[in-house]
Amino acid sequence: MEIRKPDESEQELILSLSPQAVQEGTVGESAPDTDKAKKLIESVLQKGGCYWAAFEQDQLLGWSLVGKGKDSFTDRPFGFVYELFVLPGYRGKGIAEQLLNAVCDQLKSAGYPEVRLSVHAQNRAIELYQKMGFTEKTITMNREL
After folding, report:
1. Distance between CA atoms of 19 and 38, rounded to whole angstroms?
2. Least packed by Cβ within 10 Å: which of 16, 57, 98, 99?
3. Which of 33, 63, 34 minimizes the C-alpha distance to 49?
4. Which CATH superfamily does the domain covering 2-131 fall into?
5. What is the per-residue pLDDT across 63-102, written as a single tens digit (0 to 9) for each?
6. What is the pLDDT of residues 102-134, one digit of tens each?
């Protein structure tokens, strides 16, 4: 398996699959169309974010979208994982863990002291993140009105 930045056509493929990633990541709570997902992602890319993707013989297995953030209380910069997604046929093979390790290494090399991500409370990926050393930093709560 190779983890690298995707070329332009590979990035277009990832963008076309992003609505599925958002829908699964929010456990069905959000189902953006391709245009909305593309606008959200382009905002991250325009601010210096980038994709890292996993390939096996040029076959896309999964990807991560990473960027930067700044703590609103301390102004301390951090790396941020906006998306981590493995295509259904390739799940359960450790690809998400390898992708996350690779992007964490890249963010560390770029000088970020920490990496953050947000995850829906019902998403099974929480177990992976905890296994990899992520801990709860803030908790966002809601109440239906």
Report:
1. 9
2. 57
3. 63
4. Gcn5-related N-acetyltransferase (GNAT) (3.40.630.30)
5. 999 999 999 999 999 999 999 999 999 999 999 999 999 9
6. 999 999 999 999 999 998 888 888 999 999 999
Angle at 10 between CA 90 and CA 106, to 5 degrees: 75
Helix (H, G, I), strand (E, B) or coil at 82: strand
User: Which amino acid type is present at position 77?
Assistant: P
Residue 13 one-letter amino acid:
L
The H or E element containing residue 107 is helix 95-109
For a pLDDT cut of 90, what percent of the chain falls above it?
66
Which residues lie below 8 Å from residue 29, measured CB to CB, with a gap of 6+? 120
Percent helix, strand, coil in the chain (nearest 5)? 40, 25, 35
Characterize the bridge pairing of strands 115-117 and 77-86.
parallel
